[in-house]
């Protein structure tokens, strides 16, 4: 059962890749193989949509064993990616139906602004769970920055447009707001990546690049409404949407690495200092390392002493056991991102280090039974 669960993310990744390639060939034949601007625009519009659907599936798959609060916040983030997909779906729809009313009315920008609002809110709540304080999570600063930036952009000189003035100004303001939200989302992802444990850094790193990669598309859209018009190859071939491919690819990778956080299929070969390995491994499960920094002072001291030793003394093992129990208490009662029980945590560690077949169990077989079986 566990093996099937572990393979699901890889299956989703494979199916998404196949679907992405298939969408290119479908787009090629949508216009009977003619090298038209509509054909290229359709490919550029469909690819990010397919990748984002795969990213959402991976995030949903990876939510097991996480706290209910984190599930809600990641669901908010996923809803943002879903709305981004809806926004991207407008592109192939308009190309295939030639129904430009939604673009001309300015309504096409609504899914994009709603998506970044949800993404920002989800990232902000995740940083709150981790007790991370950063200006990137400040709503007043975000709103003030968005207003100031949009006012500046609206005052920029621009070419004549066929759109009504009110629609044009509203569209420019929405795109600018979108850009500011993307910057704040990227800032939150980077800050969380820097302050969380290594287990969470890969997914946060890819989220950072995903948010950052959304910026060029917003800039291209802004430049289009300010300076370009239909008939320009940059506009007609939908090059303005091309950076969405990279942001969607990065969302897909972020989703894949999110599923790897709780994956326990890989066993770790213990070193000669098994007790230290266990404590460091359990400490890495803590999402915010600063919360247990004081507990790790003992670990640092013993680690320094072990450089001149071939094995631990009984006193050192007792200290490591007490440190582990303190970390275990934190993980089962105070950890905000993942849900642990004592029995589940210990089973996870036993499986990871293959302790059942290890003759030297350090302090592991000396753990209090009442703690070991506590629910």
Distance between the termini: 23 Å
Mean pLDDT: 80
Question: What would you call the shape?
Answer: elongated
What would you report as the Rg, rounded to the nearest angstrom?
Answer: 25 Å
Question: Major sheet: size, sense and barrel closure?
Answer: none
Enumerate how many helices there are, as a single number: 15
Helix % is over 70%
Question: Care to count the β-strands?
Answer: 0
Query: What would you call the structural class?
Result: mainly alpha
Would you identify the regions where 5 or more consecutive residues have pLDDT less than 50?
1-6, 371-375
Report strand %: under 5%
The secondary-structure element order is HHHHHHHHHHHHHHH
Model description:
The protein has 375 residues and is mainly α. The protein is 70% helix and 0% strand. The chain has 15 helices and no strands. The chain has helices at 2-30, 37-61, 68-97, 101-104, 110-129, 139-154, 165-195, 198-227, 233-236, 243-260, 274-284, 296-305, 314-333, 342-353, 369-372. The longest helix has 31 residues, at 165-195. It is elongated. The protein starts with a helix and ends with a helix. The relative contact order is 0.10. Mean pLDDT is 80; it is low at 1-6 and 371-375.
